[in-house]
Amino acid sequence: MDKIIFHIDMDAFFASCEETLNPKLKEKPLIVGGTKEDTRSIVSCPNYLARAKGIRTAMPLSKALLLAPDGNFIRGTRGLYSDFSKRVMEILKNFCPEVYQASIDEAYLDVTGIIYKYKNNPVLLAEKIKDEIKKTLNITCSVGISKGKTISKIASKQNKPDGITYIRNGEEKEFLFPLPVQRIPGVGKATLEKMNRYGIKTIGDILKFDKSFFTNEIGFHSDYLYELASGIDKSELHDYEDARKSLSKENTFNFDTDDINFLTEELYSLLEKTCNRLRKYSDEAKTLTVKVKYFDFTVNQKSHSYTKYSNNEQDFYEDAKILLNKLMSKKKKIRLIGVKFSELRCDTDIMTQENLFINEDKFKKLNLNLDKIRKKYSFNIIKFGKNFGKRN
To answer: Which residues are annotated as catalytic?
Structure first.
């Protein structure tokens, strides 16, 4: 029997929770992220009235104010979203034992083993789930249904808000073909710009090119793109609470070097990108490792463990430089540098994203805001002074 995977995506989650707390907020465009005086903040979540005016997540609050000057602008309510999230997950688990929470406002359900209870009708089950969430919490969700995780995620965006999209077996390719290529998870702004230059506008356009084209010209996973465009979805279900042993990133240079300025710039860039991934996965790390490969292909690494967990690159940079200096004591030129974080744990504050606009930890707040901007545009759109010497 083919799998039946639901993707449950809460509609304008932060804004919907606030509207449940204060129903008067439904009467106008609602922008969660800051008050009208917080002009240096960014939009965390607009409601659908605000979205109709062109306001989007990660937009500068000052621009949102121009688009909806009469809107309600509020800071997030501490504890509210995590509480609603837990209650949503409890409802989902009452329907299905296989619930895989992906973030504070979305989850996957493998309903293959229980669909017989609902006349083998996935839409009937989806309607019951949606009705229960709406009745219990007074918020709505949209549901994507297919035989695969990625296609279900794409489908859940199709009929927002408060919609159900069911892609039956054999209809995957027909559904995906006309959709904009940016609907594929993982296709960000930089990849999209490259694809658009070659006329790849829709998912169906992917099959006009050879796999090698995407590897050589676009720099994206060709098998993933081709299989998805063909209606094949091999993605696996994972919960964000699944333990990760480590997370790493490295870069091989086109030349061997012992230039300490270049190497420290590259080191900070790797820390930025790896910590960005830690925050994406809602993880914090307790151990940092710096690795180098010398010109003669020998490898060496040094590690440092901390008394507390973090996922802010600023917390690791000084120790990373010390480790690098120890590795350079052999006076050999370096051809590769890498960083690895281990002893990971789930960071629930990042997962709930509730402290973006509360000045409890300036680096956490800063980095979360930068993550949102980089996700929307490109990673290199913002750089710290430590990184200005680096080429993109």
So the answer is: 106
